[in-house]
Design goal:
This protein is mainly alpha-helical and 206 residues long. It contains eleven helices and two strands, in the order αααααααααβαβα. The N and C termini lie far apart (36 Å).
Amino acid sequence: EEIVDTLRAALDDARVDGQSFETHKVLKSIASLATNDANKARIADAGALPLLVRALQEPQEPHSSTDAAQFWAATGLWNLAFDEAIRERVNMEPGVVDALEEARRTGSDDTKRKAKGALWMIKGDQASSEVAEVSEETLARLNGQGTVENATGQVMLSYEWRMQSQVLRLRDELMAQGFTVWMDVDRMMGSTLEAMAIAIEQSDAI
């Protein structure tokens, strides 16, 4: 809940306890937290959805040459939408589809991919044919705590469960080298597991 308040302050260019925050960094934290199913409802209940839409709609951050705020806002919406109940709430949020469509048309290549994936997840068969056509091809790059902007490649890590701590360190090292990394950290099931299957097909290395 506190991080959502921090996002609100960042969007308002306000300070929290005398400290200012960059919007895209707060959004990145929220997007990462939203990869954990246990956090999704808490993030939505704290009022994050309209703030994520607002971050998509507002102009580029001051002193920034990228659309990182839009990138991480779209990522956050995509991650939240993996929960069916939250997906319905995202779909009902005023302005969300228009904001994602605008990001899909005008964002950087990475932001376009995120927006396309979020639209596909939210709207399903009702999404535009263009989104439906590309969603599976780019799905592996659209989610996961290992997402890296402008990634040089993407890697799928498969491992024995007892080795998770070592593999997490490897993931962090690969991300530091510029790779987007897919790995199952929560024994995923259902639609998320299907997305992981697509990630395997699309990864440059496993």
